[in-house]
Amino acid sequence: MNIAVAGLGHVGLVTAVAMSAIGHEVIGIDTDEQRIAALQYSEPPYFEPGLQEELALQVRLGRLRFTTDPETAYVGADVVFICVGTPPQANGEANLIAVEGAAHDIGFWAPDGCVVVEKSTVPCGTHKRLVIALGGNSRLDVAANPEFLREGTALKDTLEPTRIVVGAETEAVHRVLRDVYAPLTDSGTPYIATDVATAELAKHASNSLLATKISFMNMIALICDRTGADVTKVAEVMGADPRIGKEFLNAGLGFGGFCFPKDVAALSHTAKALGVHTTLLDDVLDLNDRARDAVYLKIEDALWNIQGKQIAVLGLAFKPDTDDIRYSPAVALCGMLLRNQAVVVAWDPQADVAAQAELPKLVIADSPYTAAQGSDLLVIATEWPETYTLDYERLASLMRGRVIVDARNVLDDWAREYATKFGFTVIGVGR
Ligand code: UDX
């Protein structure tokens, strides 16, 4: 099928590459000319494992093209996926200006019978506005097909999803989307058919529940810190119950990235506008801030005065295997330390340049050991694989202090005991 993908950010580019990889003819469109120029040379605008290779392959096979021109993108499209950004406004409400802009172009150029699919995460009810922005006629059909990909495993998540969720108002539209996804459903991926509003809401509901699990565990961690219980063992016990599930129970520095914070805020905003009580969602966001504050207080407690102390921070990305620092708790923690006059020497294999642009006072190190040199304390802020296998003997010979704050609970009992052999005190979260 001929597929156009509007917006080539974290969701759009992966969607375009994946659609091409399953055999469709794909054209990606973005308003950013530099991005398009780079993509034509198979250069993705961000780091995502495996993406560059698959992008280069699909471009070479001639199945994937890029443009900034709406006519070129939409005129021959059977299906258009809208993947433009929906960033939060100050009140939490999603900003849908880019969705509207894309819809105007699609409404003008797309052929009769084209199916326009919301893939960007949008508030429940957006499709009604989308129909109007597309021109308000019945020439085009609208569907919602939320994307559940995670940064770091985005391509795999898209090519091997746990489920394909499509909201549409007619069986004819479902038939088109079933054809699009046939290569995946043929190999067993379930296709969940809903109406459009349900699919829109399901995405916000899924992300908000995952964020709730994390905040719940961060709340339990605060109780553990005060009682001597171990939150990692509490999580093990809870996760053994299939009704709870063992994923997303890791307490730590809190959640970040461009989805959870904005989606929880957007769902809360939507609910409030509908007169639905949402203190649960507001608490999820509040507990997330408190998780970061609690780590800051552990550092302060260990060092007494923060001012003038040198702190090594391992990890800046909001999670491993990405260079994304949007809403990164690690960067927020660095900001708090810098505001309180600490010298912060940070290491991150992918996100260092972006973080330093945001925090110019950050000193960037090229390895965990360079960051540790002369530091009074070391914080593990993002669980990059390197943080699991630190050489404590070497760290002890380099650092001025002997405290490790493991803000992601990456160190198991063995690693913690090993670190203590070299004089370290290891402070975890809720353990
Ligand atoms: C998320 C959803 O998982 C994905 O389905 C959706 O499409 C987009 O949003 P992503 O933001 O890429 O994906 O990252 P994810 O792996 O979900 O982690 C989000 C944040 O939660 C990270 O900051 C991570 O460190 C944190 N987290 C995750 C925890 O603090 N504890 C956990 O147990 C799990």
Question: Helix and strand layout, with pairings?
Answer:
Layout: E1 2-6, H1 10-21, E2 25-29, H2 33-40, H3 51-61, E3 64-67, H4 70-74, E4 79-82, H5 97-109, E5 115-118, H6 126-133, E6 141-144, H7 154-159, E7 164-168, H8 171-180, H9 182-185, E8 191-194, H10 196-227, H11 231-239, H12 260-273, H13 279-303, E9 310-314, H14 329-339, E10 343-347, H15 352-358, E11 363-364, H16 368-372, E12 377-380, H17 392-398, E13 403-406, H18 413-421, E14 425-427
Parallel strand pairs: 1-2, 1-4, 2-3, 4-5, 5-6, 7-8, 9-10, 9-12, 10-11, 12-13, 13-14
Antiparallel strand pairs: 6-7
Helix pairs in contact: 1-3, 5-6, 10-12, 10-13, 12-13, 13-14
The structure holds uridine-5'-diphosphate-xylopyranose.
Structure, described:
By secondary structure, this protein is an alpha/beta fold. 45% of the residues lie in helices and 13% in strands. The protein contains 18 helices and 14 strands. Strands 3-2-1-4-5-6-7-8 form an 8-stranded mixed beta sheet, sandwiched between helices. Helix 13 packs across helix 14. The longest helix is centred in the middle third of the chain and has 32 residues, at 196-227. The radius of gyration is 23 Å and the shape is globular. The mean pLDDT is 97. Residues 147-151, 207, 210, 214, 248-250, 252, 255-257, 259-260, 318-319 line the site of uridine-5'-diphosphate-xylopyranose.
